[in-house]
Amino acid sequence: LNQILAHSGHGVMYLLMLIIPLLGVTLVVIRGMPFNVFGISIEPLMNPLVKATRHNIKQVHEYLAHTLIILVSMHALVALLHQFVLGHPILSRMLPEKLANIIENKNGKK
Fold first, then answer.
1. 80 vs 25, 38, 52, 58, 66, CA distance in Å?
2. Is residue 110 over pLDDT 50?
3. 0.85 cut: is pTM over it?
4. 56-61: long-range contacts, CB 8 A cutoff, minimum separation 24
């Protein structure tokens, strides 16, 4: 169950990291105004959409961004819980050996 939750959580976070910026770009394009990309001015790509529609897309963009922030925070807390409370070497697997040894209190240092 833990492995299923971990893989699902990673998948959802990656999906949100893809969708949120795409919605942000969509918001810029549907305003129907010129914009800059890396200093290059781009003319409007379309006529502006109705303000209510733009507002709804902005709301979805914001809710998804807040959801991502919450998921990333929970992900970090669960990793800390596994490492320091449950004793599973989750964090130390991601670190260079010297730092992993410090976290796991190896080499006689406690």
1. 34, 38, 42, 33, 21
2. no
3. no
4. 57/23, 57/26, 57/27, 57/30, 58/27, 60/23, 61/20, 61/23, 61/24, 61/27
